[in-house]
């Protein structure tokens, strides 16, 4: 893949005729070339020829691809040991905040995901050609300079000042350009990129260290084609560790099948309300922004309608098929977080209370299979399963899907990940396990083994497993291997946690505070888990909005954040889940007192809730454990302290 529209040595660029450069840029531009873009290139070429006239070495790139973001950098200059990343705003008189964030984001993307840039110094420069000149601070932190602000007149001076800080070493531009790019997009970025028509290969890592998303997609596509050709009905169980990209895989399958054959009517369904709301809003906003950039007008209502068709709520699918007994139009349905589908008792209660149906006697998995079984010919269900992620009463887990197939739909072909039969986090019922191994088709390609959420370290999910299993020495050993890559701290001071988050975030990186929905006594410290957040606002709005995660005021719980992620997380810990006596203890706050939980399933739900909260950070995590207050019987110091000491035994340092 050619990464830029035009690249050359800087001396040759200075010699090349402007029309030749413009011609090459136009030739590589795959979209209709607008006069606005053409004129911007003319001004860029002119500005760079003027600014670089005294530079006798280095390499220049125009429109360098940043696949994860679905964007192209206006210009990259490699001179000596420095990488300059330039964003031009031709005719702009201000240094707009969003433009500064954009050029910093480009640098962060290269630093985090482009192997040739990992250890090099990156300099973001916003060039607002008609803005007033400003003084710049040439500060460098972790090989990333503070963003520099330039105009047409002073760009030469700013590049020269930066070069005075360089050394005699030189980056090999050919090696740099061809080095491996291993992007790990957020689920929001991935959905936006797929929605724009990008291929999953462009936006996801494909190194040997990760089980490739495209391999998993190919496996499922083969299963669908086999099912279709034989006129069968099939179900696939795709598993993955937290952050491995299950939702991305599901979106990609639905997206790819639409390209293969519109008549398949593939659809992505999720019962995760916040995830659906956030992705739909993000897609609609991105669509409106893209239309505006292309000189088109798109009203939000139409953008939302289109986004709603791409990502649907599973409960609306269920309700539509309660009314009709016909087969749905969809031949392929992808169920996200299928382990969270409701057990029979939960569905029966809901149907009686909300729908006025007195005798509903099916679990949600059984009903959803029943709906798809109405097809006279073929159909495929793809279930995305997170191990140990059932977080609410009545969530059935994978066992209910298998029991429904065994008892009512034995003619269906079952394809399952090897983890379903080998890991009790997915399936603990030995009878179902034996049955599955007898009748099903095991496919190791249906497991996503590596957590890509935290691109800094793939071992985070293993560390969290050991912490929640009470295995401090094993957790300590894993943490010693990853602590240089993944910042992870404890603190007893919320102000320190907030300060750390704000100092860490760069560009448009998101920060936020999360806590367990059962952490009721955090309210005394200003953290109210009962105050509901509106997920699209919390995840998408800017830092100056008090409802945004970045404002560090509203707190998200496991129900708000499951399936989603942010860059830097503070997890506020309460004693509904505390470590004492060599084990985790569970309690629920009722009225004015804590009550111990005794049911094993309640212990599992709470442990899974904290598993979700501990695995939401892409780049770093700080756990705030309050001091407690012995004058308040609901906040005894003893339980907070013993939990804090346990985390220290796991190797987590205190700040």
Question: What keywords describe this structure?
Answer:
Rossmann fold, globular, 8-stranded parallel beta sheet, 655 residues, 6-stranded mixed beta sheet, alpha/beta, 3 domains, 41% helix, single chain, 18% strand
Structural class: alpha/beta
Question: Which second-level CATH architecture of the largest domain applies?
Answer: 3-Layer(aba) Sandwich
- Roughly how much helix do the residues carry, as a percent range? 40-55%
Choose one word for the global shape.
globular
Instruction: Supply Rg.
Output: 27 Å
Which CATH class of the largest domain? Alpha Beta
Count of helix runs: 25
Largest sheet: 8 strands, parallel
The third-level CATH topology of the largest domain is Rossmann fold
Low-confidence stretches: none
Distance between the termini: 45 Å
Q: Mean pLDDT, as a whole number?
A: 90
Number of strands: 23
What share of residues are in beta strands?
Answer: 15-25%
**Count of domain modules:** 3
């Amino acid at each position: 893949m050619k990464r830029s529209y035009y690249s050359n040595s800087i001396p040759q660029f200075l010699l090349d005729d402007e029309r030749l450069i413009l011609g090459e840029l136009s030739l590589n531009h795959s979209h209709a070339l607008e006069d606005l873009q053409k004129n911007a290139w003319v001004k860029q070429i002119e500005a760079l020829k003027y600014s670089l006239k005294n530079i006798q070495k280095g390499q220049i790139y125009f429109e360098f691809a940043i696949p994860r973001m679905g964007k192209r950098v206006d210009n990259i200059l490699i001179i000596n040991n420095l990488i300059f990343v330039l964003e031009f705003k031709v005719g702009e008189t201000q240094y707009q905040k969003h433009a500064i964030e954009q050029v910093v984001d480009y640098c962060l993307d290269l630093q985090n995901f482009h192997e040739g840039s990992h250890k090099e110094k990156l300099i973001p420069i916003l060039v607002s050609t008609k803005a007033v000149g400003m003084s710049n601070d040439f500060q460098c932190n972790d090989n990333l300079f503070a963003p520099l602000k330039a105009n047409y007149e002073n760009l030469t001076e700013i590049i020269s000042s930066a070069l005075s800080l360089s050394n005699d070493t030189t980056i090999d531009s050919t090696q740099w350009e061809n080095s491996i790019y291993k992007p790990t997009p957020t689920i929001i970025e991935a959905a936006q990129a797929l929605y724009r028509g990008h291929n999953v290969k462009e936006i996801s890592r494909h190194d040997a260290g990760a089980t490739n998303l495209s391999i998993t997609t190919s496996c499922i596509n083969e299963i669908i084609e086999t099912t279709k050709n034989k006129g069968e009905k099939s179900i696939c169980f795709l598993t993955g560790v937290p952050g491995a990209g299950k939702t991305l895989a599901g979106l990609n399958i639905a997206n790819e099948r639409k390209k293969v054959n519109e008549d398949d009517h593939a659809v992505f369904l999720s019962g995760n309300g916040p995830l659906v709301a956030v992705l739909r809003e993000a897609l609609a906003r991105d669509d409106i922004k893209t239309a505006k950039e292309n000189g088109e007008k798109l009203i939000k209502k139409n953008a939302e309608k289109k986004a709603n068709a791409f990502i649907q709520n599973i409960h609306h699918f269920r309700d539509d098929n309660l009314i009709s007994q016909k087969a749905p139009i969809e031949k392929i349905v992808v169920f996200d977080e299928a382990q969270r589908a409701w057990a029979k008792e939960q569905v029966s209660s809901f149907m009686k209370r909300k729908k006025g149906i007195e005798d509903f006697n099916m679990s949600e998995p059984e009903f959803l299979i029943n709906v798809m079984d109405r097809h006279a010919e073929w159909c495929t269900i793809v279930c995305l399963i997170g191990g140990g992620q059932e977080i609410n009463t009545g969530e059935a887990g994978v066992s209910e899907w298998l029991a429904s197939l065994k008892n009512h739909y034995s003619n269906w072909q079952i394809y399952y990940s090897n983890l379903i039969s080998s890991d009790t986090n997915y399936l603990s019922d030995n009878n179902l396990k034996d049955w599955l191994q007898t009748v099903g088709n095991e496919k190791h390609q249906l497991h996503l083994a590596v957590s890509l959420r935290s691109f800094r370290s793939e071992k985070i999910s293993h560390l969290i497993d050991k912490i929640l299993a009470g295995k401090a020495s094993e957790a300590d050993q894993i943490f010693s291997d990853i602590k240089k890559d993944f910042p992870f701290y404890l603190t007893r001071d919320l102000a320190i946690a907030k300060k750390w988050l704000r100092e860490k975030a760069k560009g448009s990186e998101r920060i936020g505070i999360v806590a367990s929905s059962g952490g009721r006594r955090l309210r005394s410290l200003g953290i109210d888990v009962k105050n509901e957040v509106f997920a699209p606002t919390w995840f998408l709005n800017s830092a100056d909005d008090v409802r945004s995660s970045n404002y560090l005021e509203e707190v998200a719980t496991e129900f708000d954040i499951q399936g989603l992620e942010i860059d830097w997380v503070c997890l506020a810990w309460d004693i509904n889940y505390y470590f004492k006596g060599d084990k985790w203890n569970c309690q629920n706050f009722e009225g004015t007192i804590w009550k111990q939980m005794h049911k094993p399933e309640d212990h599992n739900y709470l442990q899974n809730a904290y598993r979700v909260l501990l695995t939401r950070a892409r780049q770093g995590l700080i756990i705030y454990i309050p001091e407690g207050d012995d004058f308040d019987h609901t906040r005894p110091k003893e339980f907070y302290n013993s939990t804090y000491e346990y985390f220290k035994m796991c190797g987590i340092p205190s700040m």
